Amino acid sequence: MDELIKQGQWWWLVSVPVLTGVFALFGSWWGSKLGKNTEHWQWLRNEKQKEYIAAVDKMGEMTSTLADLVQEKPTSEVSGDNSFITPIIVLGPRRVKKSMKAVMSQMHETLEILHEAPSDTRLKRAQDAHGLLAENYDKFLADVRRDLGVKD
């Protein structure tokens, strides 16, 4: 050590510990930042998952109720009670919101067909509308799975 000072290379004695400390501080800061980002992403995913589960459950109930109406009352009057269709708000990417709106509008369209006067064509139109509703519901589920990063 004395030889380094005599040779004019005293800066080695100062720079090595200082640089070691700087790199240690930078490494701990960077690791903390990455940990916070991961923690936030996981929290956000869990919150989305809770909301999507509630939305999927509610849409599933409404879809099955409509399916029962299509199957049980094909040629009779359907009551004007559509209180089982309630608005659902989902916070997510545009594709999820768009597919959810498609499901909701198809539900209303199917219900409107069922409120028409009973006829043979009403049954066929209601069944076709419900088939389209099922396709839109499946697309909504696929979009939700895609947003949550769920792989098949």
Q: How is the biggest beta sheet arranged?
A: none
Helix and strand run:
HHHH
Shape: rod-shaped
Low-pLDDT residue spans: none
**Global mean pLDDT:** 82
Strand elements, count: 0
End-to-end Cα distance: 63 Å
Strand-pairing-aware structural class: mainly alpha
Helical content band? over 70%
How would you describe the overall organization of this protein?
It is rod-shaped, with a radius of gyration of 30 Å. It has one domain. It has 152 residues and is mainly alpha-helical. Helix content is 77%, strand content 0%.
Entry summary:
The protein is mainly α and 152 residues long. The protein contains 4 helices and no strands. α2 packs parallel to α3 and α2 packs antiparallel against α4.
Keywords:
152 residues, mainly alpha, 4 helices, 77% helix
Secondary-structure topology with pairs:
Elements lengths: L1 H5 L4 H62 L21 H21 L5 H29 L4
